[in-house]
Design goal:
alpha/beta, TIM Barrel, two-stranded antiparallel sheet, 8 helices
Length: about 230
């Protein structure tokens, strides 16, 4: 697997919001491939986090890829606002709307990437239906809602199942970099990601890794990101 398709997105949820510009620069200087922004409404998940104003503030301080994760009900209503705030990809949850395909289509009509997120308890049998419609599958490896939770190893089987389905159907997406070839549909893992769990997820087929506490909680962010990147090398 080419290292060029393996991406690391630090999760802003684990950053110090009082110094958000510095926290964004820290990730950028360390060589992060993008930033992951968790949006929670206190209803779909039992927590409240940031919204469009935080996304826009982050965008003002970086040109990095912004991977917005909507853990909210009725995600359709917020798509345009997050696009205007600078999102490059919007991920939403299968269970959050009755109009999954319409929501995917609208995200694409806004000229950004669409990702579909699956909770640990969601059946893997629901995933193949959407593989041809999205730009990534986001696999939650913890129950959504709070950072710092332990990695759920049972999700590894779901990652392997999804990877096999993508390979069997030969589903490819265009690379974000103009000079890079198309790549297999990305599988993003989010939750409890550190060098050990990232390696396990990568071996199961994951290609993009959201890491929060293991990066922003480390004494040296840049060193921690490099250790994580080394762990997912071939």
């Amino acid at each position: 697997m080419s290292k060029d398709i393996l991406k690391i997105y630090p999760s802003i949820l684990a950053a110090d919001f009082a110094y958000i510009a510095d926290e964004v620069k820290k990730a950028e200087d360390a060589g992060a491939d993008g930033l992951h922004i968790d949006v929670m409404d206190g209803l779909f998940v039992p927590n409240l986090t940031m919204g469009t104003r935080m996304c826009a503030a982050i965008r003002r301080h970086t040109s990095l890829f912004l991977d917005v994760h909507l853990m909210i009900y009725n995600p359709f209503d917020w798509i345009e606002r997050f696009v205007e705030a600078g999102a490059n990809r919007i991920n939403f949850h299968l269970e959050a709307t009755e109009d999954v395909e319409e929501t995917i289509d609208y995200i694409h009509r806004c000229n950004i990437e669409a990702g579909l997120a699956f909770n640990p308890e969601t059946s893997a049998s629901l995933i193949p239906k959407y593989l041809d419609q999205v730009d990534c599958i986001l696999m939650m490896t913890v129950p959504p809602g709070f950072g710092g939770q332990p990695f759920d190893h049972e999700v590894l089987d779901k990652i392997s199942f999804t990877h096999a389905a993508i390979q069997k159907r030969g589903i490819m997406v265009s690379s974000k970099e103009m000079d890079q070839p198309d790549r297999p549909l990305p599988i993003v893992v989010d939750g409890g990601i550190d060098p050990v769990t990232a390696k396990l997820a990568k071996e199961a087929g994951a290609t993009e890794f959201v890491a929060g506490s293991s990066l922003y909680g480390a004494p040296n962010f840049k060193q921690a990101l490099q250790v994580l990147r080394n762990a997912i090398k071939d």
